[in-house]
């Protein structure tokens, strides 16, 4: 199913949704966007329901502007991403549709 | 089963527990929380029984505030996390319930 | 199928193509090329159709000149890579041909 | 089988041994210990027989004090770890016992 | 099959060869060797036939002296490693022999 990416812009919350395709999203990298020349850190956070958000990474302009992640989300996970700080964070990874889950189902048919 | 995250705050020990769901927890990232403006390092450590704790990562404010991890815990692992230093460390990852373990059990039924 | 690598040079867009072999490309590392002595950041971006490109990583001369990635592309993914900045970015990884997909096909024959 | 960790202290060599449990050890992170305030690098090395040791990572106090690894060791691997430098390096990861190897053995019984 | 490591010294090219054992080599880490006190970067490159070499990583003395890699090589891959710069780069990882490939062959016997 291939490449997946979004730009998480400041001041907005981005719910994860998988376009009605069952499968697993692998989020594997976060990279600071262009914009403000401030040296202020940008933090990517993940929201699950009404719990306190969890910080997924903290990127520092001109020092560490990218970092690997290794997160997996199911199609029915109710999560959302947002940024603390003045710049966007680009998330990238790949989506694997659920045919793999059916490997042994072949025996049933 | 999707996203998992906790904030490990200074001065407290957080035992891992899996809410009675059998499965495997993948802890894949550690990120410094907000707080003290001190430049002091924050170290995440893992406690197993009465052994000396093992350092899992060391985060440096304004230098390296996030790092990938690749740890796996079973539901019955008796471990606990704590922080040395003035700030929280956010841990994130994902939990995979044990249906995968039952792949070949289908043959028994 | 082994090693895969390309040099993504500034000012050009590099479509991914898999030489008519079905399989999966794993892109696992990005490294800054030689060239300009400028301290300007170089950003690797991925283009999918007419959507805004997604930043895959941001490399900083003399600070962070390499970073791990973990991207997977299918043979029929229509993506392209380009660089923002004065230097090349070398991408490396490995290609796995599709024989693995046929593991359970043995039962059909 | 869960969490695994050791503290590799300067001036000592630590052979890997798996407590007579067949399986695979995944060593996934190295983190600098506390101690000397010197800025001197600490290098983790792996010894195999009488060959020259191989450097596994190099940690820099106050700059890069932790790094991911991705090493796998079998129960019968004859390796040992040591440190060059004034501080300990904590290694962490997880051990997977060999039941996985027996997946298809179920057919024999 | 366990641990694998080589020291890639400046001024020499190191072809990969697998000692006639069929399998897959996972190269997972690169670490700067000791030596020259110069601050000059050291670049690890991979040669495939007569193509231009691809940079696999770039290590900076006293800044970033180690980095994770995630490369896989087959026994019959014709690749070679070399270094640009004054110091060695130590490569480490592990080799997995091809018994895994034969998992489903058990059905044939």
Topology:
The structure is a homopentamer of 109-residue chains.
Chain A: E1 3-8, E2 14-15, E3 23-32, E4 42-48, E5 54-59, E6 66-74, E7 79-84, E8 89-97
Antiparallel strand pairs in A: 1-8, 2-7, 3-6, 3-8, 4-5, 4-7
Would you write up a description of this structure?
- 5 copies of one chain form a homopentamer.
- The first copy, chain A, is mostly beta strands.
- Chain A has a single domain (3-98), classed as Nucleoplasmin core domain (Jelly Rolls, Sandwich), CATH 2.60.120.
- Helix content of chain A is 0%, strand content 50%.
- The first copy, chain A, contains no helices and 8 strands.
- The first copy, chain A, has strands at 3-8, 14-15, 23-32, 42-48, 54-59, 66-74, 79-84, 89-97.
- In chain A, the strands form 2 sheets. Chain A has a 4-stranded antiparallel sheet, with no helix packed on it. Chain A has a 4-stranded antiparallel sheet with strand order 2-7-4-5, with no helix packed on it.
- In chain A, a hairpin with a 5-residue loop joins strand 4 and strand 5.
- The first copy, chain A, is globular.
- Chain A starts with a strand and ends in a 12-residue tail after the last strand.
- Residues 101-109 of chain A have low confidence and may be disordered.
- Chains in contact: A-B, A-C, B-D, C-E, D-E.
- The interface between C and E is medium-sized, with 29 and 26 residues.
